[in-house]
Amino acid sequence: MNGPFSLPRRAPRKVTQPKVTLAHGGGGTAMRDLIEDVFLETFSGAGHAAPEDQARFDLSALAAQGDRLAFTTDAFVVDPLFFPGGDIGKLAVCGTINDLAVGGARPVALSCAVIIEEGLPLETLRAVVASMARTAAEAGVVIVTGDTKVVARGACDKLFLTTTGIGVVRTGLDVGIAKGRPGDVVLVNGLLGDHGAAILNARGDLALETPIESDCAPLHDLVATLIAAAPGIRMMRDATRGGVAAVLNELAEASGVGVRIRETDVPLRPEVNGFCEILGLDPLYLANEGKLVAVVPPEEAEAALAAVRAHLLGREAAIIGRLAAERPGRVVMETRFGGERIVDMLVGDQLPRIC
Amino acid sequence: MNGPFSLPRRAPRKVTQPKVTLAHGGGGTAMRDLIEDVFLETFSGAGHAAPEDQARFDLSALAAQGDRLAFTTDAFVVDPLFFPGGDIGKLAVCGTINDLAVGGARPVALSCAVIIEEGLPLETLRAVVASMARTAAEAGVVIVTGDTKVVARGACDKLFLTTTGIGVVRTGLDVGIAKGRPGDVVLVNGLLGDHGAAILNARGDLALETPIESDCAPLHDLVATLIAAAPGIRMMRDATRGGVAAVLNELAEASGVGVRIRETDVPLRPEVNGFCEILGLDPLYLANEGKLVAVVPPEEAEAALAAVRAHLLGREAAIIGRLAAERPGRVVMETRFGGERIVDMLVGDQLPRIC
């Protein structure tokens, strides 16, 4: 960690240039000023401890929270950087918190590596970092270490972030994509496709009267609620790239079960539904950034649904289907007209740089 | 970790396209094929376990190795991707191993997030991933989880990697940039500036007869040797961006000491020295990727030097100076002509995209 957040603390020198320059990634005083002024000050001002030289965690304190360490990483290249309901910073913090959470872990800390295009307005960088700090502080997670690289104009598009998270898996909890069994119930925590539709709408010129907001949110608290209500829970997965369709297909294959969902039970915002109809998109494939798919044993389904619905991030939760022994590896949807269709996995995504 | 290495295992489908497409980052079957064929097969074939769905580590097994978890991240944007002595993959694995090692930690595992430009030849990606796998296997470190994003042509330059590492800090070891004391001895493990010179030479048209090779190497084993020989060691730092000059300046400031080095004791390859003279560069500021600066108490200096010199990666190790109470915060070099000059921190680097 010769990187950003590892420098000795002192009164930071304010960065006064209006734009990021190559010198800000060069390992000299300019980089140091950028890190101290933009990153350290912001992260330490957001209600948690200042990132330290070499992030370290007491292993016995971690072991007191559970028996396994979870470790996960994601790169974020979303375009545009700011969109209704969020920005790349919020997305990067929520995305990694959610990966930890759906693995059954309580998030502990994040790292953040930043690749910046020369010429990015300082104001933009400050806004993204502030959003990261705010989101992390609200979620009770600390951003403890990081790195900053600056590349020449044209060598990257504005700003890319990579967040990596560590967390502690609850003792005794055993969730996984291969653990679904026939009879299990499939639940989602709310309206699907908002993030994908929000990004696409923010890019395009459809100019909806009411812009669709991304559902970008940290799900760790919702997950805690869900696990408490359904301790026999089989698996959770956040439905990001590839949407709910990708999660269900992975589930069907890994668990060797059929997945049967009902179109009329899939919760959709009318605007997103309309948007998809206009553009010929299928909302089941749209990315979400605050939605998870959970599989619970049938006897815990009602309790799980009630608990999730009582949570702020689960008010529109719904049971959308069940696992079956029939047609293993397949996801089948009963359509609103009484027919059936296979919900296959797409080859690619419906749109690039969605997260 | 909805990402790459988290998909269920099955016989991978070979990716036959010659180039990476946007679909390879889209969360569908194309992405899955890419991850399984290029990443999972390579990493699992390199002598260690296959990356799993949600990377998890037994906390009691970690605690048996030491009392603290170390956590560090770095982004890699080096240009060109391949250079004499290494490539971006080797660099990304060594860089994060070295960050862990100089913090006193034994490296345990890495994550890897990849941002790929549409159109990157598959062959290039395979070569980089194979290099990562080889380097990690040689170092006894596993790459356990990751993520893949693909951006449109022109939105990034070929390939960026971010590696994040976890490791366990040796119980009782207390090293840090602020721990230097007057009288302590400053040691480096070999010839300085090779990486910076290698990259610059690989880019330019100086066309040296013997190309300079990067010193890119994992330092964890050397660090273990050094700590065993000098248990009272104060600090270690790998001298990457900003070179030895940046490390010594941070040390001087954080420890509140003066750093005094002798030009004639600084180990330099004659080719690198000549290269620097031609281009007007100062080798003290050139990046290294297999060199560390260590500060040890005077009574352990000889043992430390002998131990490092006996290691394959430390044959040209040298004591280059001492810490002093005088001129705190300053790095002063006695020149070969008997004069003195201040080795200040640069504002930026001598060259961008060095790592």
TrEMBL record, chains A, B:
Q: Name one Pfam family in it.
A: AIRS
Question: Which CDD domains does this chain map to?
Answer: HypE (cd02197)
Gene3D superfamilies according to UniProt: PurM-like C-terminal domain, PurM-like, N-terminal domain
Residue ranges of every copy of the PurM-like N-terminal domain listed in the record: 64-169
Q: Where is this region: Disordered?
A: 1-24
Family recorded in the similarity comment: Belongs to the HypE family.
Recorded hits in PANTHER family, A to Z, give:
CARBAMOYL DEHYDRATASE HYPE (PTHR30303:SF0), HYDROGENASE ISOENZYMES FORMATION PROTEIN HYPE (PTHR30303)
Name assigned to this protein: Hydrogenase expression/formation protein
Record organism: Azorhizobium caulinodans (strain ATCC 43989 / DSM 5975 / JCM 20966 / LMG 6465 / NBRC 14845 / NCIMB 13405 / ORS 571)
Q: Which gene encodes it?
A: hypE
